[in-house]
Specification:
Radius of gyration: 20 Å
Distance between the termini: 29 Å
Bound molecules: uridine-diphosphate-2(N-acetylglucosaminyl) butyric acid
Oligomer: single chain
Length: 338
């Protein structure tokens, strides 16, 4: 029997809850499964999609190729004096790894609590939240080369991390599958609490010397209050990236809109809060058919139950157009469209 299944609904495999079908589907629980999958000639009969938690994608049509769900599990920690290296399989749920590290007192990823998705997907878009990005704790990852079936290691420099970006989204797109990620963590916590929402919440709870468990709890609560739970309302987190624009362009827009929320970015550029731009255009909490934006975070598009991917996509086009017309700023999707 082939390891590939045919005509499988992808609804359980994407957090937007879009009901499309994959022509072929296979689950890899280990590297041997990956070898077997790609030995099957049918694996080459159309496009390929490697799936982690399916939390950063929008399906707009059936997928006429092979979808491979990565379910490689396992977490291992190697400790020395004050540094810890933790390796986790590509299919481990990211937040399970965060909980493991918090329980063991391994510091570094507590600010990344409750980010949906899997460990294997985390370097691809360099996940980040509340002042920390994966790159800050990344040591190396192991990846399966689809063409040769061989495993290679990628260190920090090789991954070429950027804001929600890495080599795996660019030159190496669809060439490698990340099977394991190793992080460099600390026993002595260097807590990152400067993000406004975290410091305000710690103060509200009268916590003066927070532990990593405190930070994890605070971040989790902030996320729950702002972001919809995909188990009840389909979504893929931030739908757009926060646009990074030149200082000259910023100054032009800022003159007209001095309340525009913005932050300094590398190379003398400015990052603008996309959620603010979208809210100013009147979209926050707006429902259009079965789709809309989330009531507490305009950057998040939602599926109210039976939205098609096309419907969500068209709504996102409308948002991009409206923001462009009002502010002259082009929003780019963070979510991958298929
Ligand atoms: N804002 C509004 N209206 C909104 C939403 C936001 O005015 O509806 C303004 C507020 O002033 C707020 C600022 O935008 O202070 C920033 O909002 P928030 O702190 O919610 O963060 P964000 O920039 O919208 C980014 C990440 C999130 C991450 C948070 C926290 C991106 C694309 N998104 O959102 O990541 O959780 O910061 O660090 O960078 C994701 O990537 O899926 C994601 C959820």
């Amino acid at each position: 029997m082939s390891i590939l299944q045919e005509n499988i609904s992808l609804r359980p495999y994407n957090t937007f809850g879009i009901d499309v079908k994959a022509r072929y589907f296979a689950e890899a629980k280990n590297v041997e499964d990956l070898v077997a999958i790609f030995k099957d000639p049918l694996s080459k009969s159309g496009p390929l999609l490697v799936l982690g938690g399916g939390s950063n994608m929008l399906f707009t049509q059936d997928f006429n190729g092979l979808v491979v769900k990565i379910s490689i599990l396992g977490i291992r920690a190697v400790e020395n004096q004050d540094e810890i290296k933790v390796s986790a399989g590509g299919g481990v749920v990211w937040n399970d790894l965060v909980n493991y590290c918090v329980e063991h007192g391994f510091a570094g990823i507590e600010n990344l609590s409750l980010i949906p998705g899997t460990v294997g997907a985390s370097p691809i878009q360099n996940i980040g939240a509340y002042g920390v990005e994966l790159k800050d704790v990344f040591d190396e990852c192991t990846a399966f080369e689809i063409e040769t079936g061989k495993l290679s290691k990628f260190d920090y420099a090789a991954c070429r991390f950027g804001y929600r970006d890495s080599i795996f989204k660019n030159e190496l797109k669809n060439k490698y599958i990340i099977t394991e990620v190793r992080l460099k963590l600390n026993k002595k916590a260097k807590l990152q609490t400067k993000y406004g929402a975290i410091s305000a919440e710690l103060e509200r709870r009268h916590i003066v010397q927070p532990t990593i468990a405190d930070i994890s709890a605070v971040v989790s609560d902030i996320r729950v209050s702002k972001l919809p739970d995909p188990k009840t309302i389909g979504n893929a987190g931030s739908f757009f990236k926060n646009p990074v624009i030149s200082k000259a362009q910023f100054e032009q827009v800022y003159q007209k809109f001095p309340e525009m929320v913005h932050y300094p970015a590398p190379d003398n550029q400015i990052k603008v809060a996309a959620g603010w731009l979208i809210e100013q255009c009147g979209f926050k909490g707006k429902t259009v058919g079965e789709t809309g934006t989330w009531k507490n975070q305009a950057l998040v598009l939602v599926n109210h139950g039976h939205a098609s991917g096309q419907e969500v996509y068209s709504f996102s086009e409308h948002i991009i157009q409206t923001v462009q017309n009002r502010f002259g700023i082009l929003l780019e999707r963070e979510v991958n469209i298929f």
